[in-house]
Amino acid sequence: MTLVDWGLLAASWGLATIFGLLFAIYSIETFAGLFGGSGPVAKRLSGEPGGRTVILIPAHNEEGIIADTVSELQRRIQDPVSILVVADNCTDKTAELARAAGATVLERQDDDRRGKAYALAHGRDWLKTDPPDCVIVMDADCMLARGSAELLASHALEHGVPAQATNLVEAAGAAPPMVQISNFAMLVKNLLRQRGMTRMGGAALLTGTGMAFPWPLFASAPLASAELAEDLALGVTLTRQGQVPRFVEAARVTSDAAAREDTLVQRTRWEHGFVSTARRYALPLIVSGLAKFSPSRLFLGLHLLVPPLALLFALGIAALLLVILAGLVTGEPLPALVTLVGIAVAATMTLFAWLFHGRDVLAGGALLRVPFYVLWKIPVYLKLLTGRETRWIRTRRAGEEAPDP
Length: 405
Description:
By secondary structure, this protein is α/β, with parallel strands linked by helices. 56% of the residues lie in helices and 12% in strands. The chain is built from 16 helices and eight strands. The chain has an eight-stranded mixed β-sheet, sandwiched between helices.
C-alpha cells in the first residue's frame, strides 16, 4: 500500500467507527424502548399530588387558542392545581382572554429580552411571593391528559427532581406526508428513545412542555437565558448537578400538528438548538459519566451524540458512499460493511418502531416518502453550515396568516 492508501484506509475506519457508534446508540435506545409501557394515567395515579401545584404557561400572541387551552385544562385538573399565564410581549388579547377563561394572568413587556425562558423567569419571580410546592411548565398550544398534572406533581415532589411527561403530536393521518414523518420522528425521540435511555439509567430529556419541578429546584433553576433549546440545556445542567430528571411516561402532553411550511420552521429551531447543545455538552457528559460512574450522565451524553433522525441517516449514507469509494482504491471492504450494517440495523429498528407504535401517526403510503423527507430537510442542514438559527421563533398557529416574529 502507498501512503495515500494508508491514509484512505485510516479515514475509512474513522468514518466507519464514528457512524457505527452513532447508529448503535440509536438502535440500542430504540430497541430498549420498543416494548412495554406504563399504562393509562388513571391506573398509575395514587392520590393527590401532595401539595399546591401551579401550571405555568408562557404565551406570546395566543389569542386564537389561549381561552380554549385554559378552559380545557380546568376541566382536566383538580385542586390544588391552578393555572398561571404569562402574556409575554403580546400585542393581542391573550391576557384578556386567558383572564376571562379563569387563569391568573401576568403581563410582561420587554423588547430586548424576548422568548419563553424570560417569560418563565418572570412567572417565577411573581410566584416567589407565595411559592407553590410544584410548578408544571406547559406551552400554550399543548394539552395535558386528564390526571397528568397530578401524576407529574406527585413524582416531582416524591423524588425531589424534575418530572417529564411523554410529549407527542396528535395523530394526524390526513396531514401532508412530510408532516406525518416529522411527527413520527418526534414519537421515536420523545417516547421510544426517551423510554429506552431512561430504562438503561440515563436522565430524561426535558422537552419544554409537560415538565414538573419541585419549587426549590424551580426557584434556583437557570431559566432566563437566550438558549435556543433552553429546556434541553436546563435538563443537562440539572443532571450535572445531580438533580436527574425522571421520565413519567403515563403522563401525556400533546399538541396539534403544525402545517407543512411551519413544521420546517419548527424543526429548524429544534434541531439547531439540539445540535448547539450537543456540541457543548455531549463529550463532557460522557467523560464525567465514566469518571464518576454515573449512568445518568453517560447515557445522556451518548444520546446527545446522535444527530436528529433524518440528519443521522443522511450523514450515514454520505459516509457509506465515501467509504465505498475509498474501499475501491484500497481494496479493503470491511469499513464499508461496518457502516452498512449500522445503517441496516438502525433502519430495521425504525421500521419496528413504526410497526409497533407509529402506524397511527404515519400512514404506510407516507412511509415511502422518507427519502423525500430527507431532501426536504436539506435547507435545515445547510443552515447548520451557513449560519445556525439563533432566534426564538414562535410557531404559527392554525388560522394565522403569517408567522409571528
